[in-house]
UniProtKB/TrEMBL annotation:
Residues 1-19 form the signal peptide. The keyword Signal applies. Keywords: Signal. Residues 44-180 form the Cytochrome P460 domain. It comes from the Bacteria. It comes from Bradyrhizobium neotropicale. This is Cytochrome P460.
Amino acid sequence: MKRSTLIGLSGSVSIAALAAGVAISAQDKYTVQVPNGLAFSEFRGYEDWPVIALSENEGLIAVIVGNAAMIDAYKEGVPANGKPFPDGARMAKIHWSPKKQETYPGQPTVPGVQHDVDFMVKDSKRFADSGGWGWAAFAYDAASDTFRPFTTADNPPQENDAKCGFACHTVVQNRDYVFTEYGKR
């Protein structure tokens, strides 16, 4: 092989290796999992789910979204009708730090930097010992554009297994462990 061909091939291989290294180092959020619990991948596509409700708590604003099974159950009157959500119902709560929208008169509060995302899934067999629900909370780091499971060192402190929400949600056991109400449309 000619020397110029070898140099060109070597340069191409180096660029390809560098590009692959960059691609490998960027986190795919769908690979993150709570120890002994839910994986981000179980909620693939949550970004496009219909809105259940909005909330504001502890200085954060949030949108709560649900998959088709969750939305259909709400439309049928669950949990107010005393029936439980069906297995497969999923919801996500996406939190942001609030910011003022400077370009609109009155400067309304809008989502700023993402803070975290929380997930719930109804699976009465898999999570029989936690009301039939599994939970996960993932903190977001804007600087690295990555997620990681919450820990007890976070604010608010959060256990990081699939039962992390059970203790808090027992106060709404009569609502099938779900706080969020579906707003009239």
